[in-house]
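hey can u run this one w/ flavin-adenine dinucleotide bound, need the structure tokens asap thx
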Amino acid sequence: MTARVVIVGNGMAGARLAGELHAREGDRKVTVLGAEPHRAYNRILLSTLLAGRIGEPDVELTEAAGHGVDLRSGVPVTAIDRSARQVRTDDGERIGYDHLVLATGARAVVPSLPGLDPANLPERVVPFRTLDDCRRILAAADGARSALVLGGGLLGLEAARGLATRGLATTVVHPREHLMERQLDPAAGAVLAGTLAGFGVTVQLGVSATGVATDANGVRLDLADGRSLHADLLVLSCGVRPDTALAQAAGLTVRRGVVVDDRLRTSDRSISAIGDCAEHDGVLTGLVAPAWAQAQVLADVLTGTDPLARYRPRPVVTRLKAAGIDLASMGDAAGGEPGEELTFADPARGTYARLRIRDERLIGAILLGDNPAVGTVIQLFDRGHPVPTDRRALLLGRALGAVGATPAASPALMPDAATVCQCNTVSKGALVRSWRSGARTVDAVVAATRAGTGCGGCRDAVSGIVDWLSQAESVEVTR
Ligand SMILES: Cc1cc2nc3c(=O)[nH]c(=O)nc-3n(C[C@H](O)[C@H](O)[C@H](O)COP(=O)(O)OP(=O)(O)OC[C@H]3O[C@@H](n4cnc5c(N)ncnc54)[C@H](O)[C@@H]3O)c2cc1C
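ok here u go:
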């Protein structure tokens, strides 16, 4: 009998899983039910779309939806009947499964403030999670002169930078004392605020919002210190909450997310969960690299390709996708765990670096501003390799020959195991192997390995490696 796999959610995790299942041999029917009316798209590129650096066609995901995959968009699942092994859709259809996968992602949090009804937000007040949200922000920004962003985390700052790029005077309101407090220390937050100011983004820190009012002329955001800020639109970037409603109603174990084991199984062996909705080992990931790693493990387990495959979390590197601002933060960057501390700050140039080292290994780092050592620092952190004796090279980004090389600087010096694409966990060795198997252009290498198809931050590094391989080959041929 053909095994029936039903995937709820056609976001980044669900679409990737369908593609992974499609790519593996075997007789099975895969049904993907997605609430959003669109084809699967790359959610993380919405910031780049908002900034006008790419167009809508560029965010479409190229995951397989071919033979053996029944893809239905605009079809929300409303209930799971575990005893009958069926899901029910909002148009009343019942679809049977042998294995069900929840990939329902997360929803933007709408803060409970007077004037904000989450079910009926005013036109000028928009969260930032979906393609439709992005369209609404762009529609509201069209002809607007000013914008407010509530929330100074990663996404709020990416939205603010994008709106400023479009010429809007933009103010970020953040209740904490410094920006991106989950990834940065106060000194880095201050340097970042200075850099943003140079791009036309003003920051109001340490003050909460107390209410919102809108009328035909714009939005008013009331603050706890008695002030009110006015603008043409308000973007809400106040965090996300895993979408666990279906799992909860079906009686699965749910804490903050749907609880899964190393095989991504929920408390019901016939149901798995991956991506932003899943909680593994007490951790919610909220990032694409773990979601895609989980999709791969689950596909291996479900198809029997590797029944022993297990999900093992990897160290996380966060990068800000904002034009003109280079920022990478990793590990215990903001402090907490004991360790050796090295910092360098040059606020006038928008530069800040902090390395946290224990037992000769990086346990955390913040690199803000132009620092040519960023690739090396990420590799050292990712691989857990010892740091060089002269730490200044990492901190100041100079004399890199002594400690290694950034992918762009010299691919020849990179170890094969170095991870080039963090989103898809693609090593330099995998890129070289795809080249040797016949992929001779950047596009061909990307298609073979998927490197560069997540946030796109490694595209230059991939191009550098392909250039290096081409040159190495032409030298060999002329010899
Ligand atoms: C603007 C932005 C920028 C980001 N930048 C980065 C970044 O640089 N790096 C990074 O790693 N991560 C980034 N993220 C986070 C990343 O997008 C998420 O981690 C990723 O999308 C998680 O994938 P997912 O499939 O679990 O969830 P989602 O992509 O949210 O997909 C879940 C899907 O399930 C659907 N769904 C929910 N309930 C149902 C139901 N009952 N029936 C049917 N369908 C349902 C939803 O409609 C949605 O389409 C960013 C997010 C945003 C919004």
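Residues 399-408 have pLDDT under 50 and may be disordered. anyway lmk if its weird
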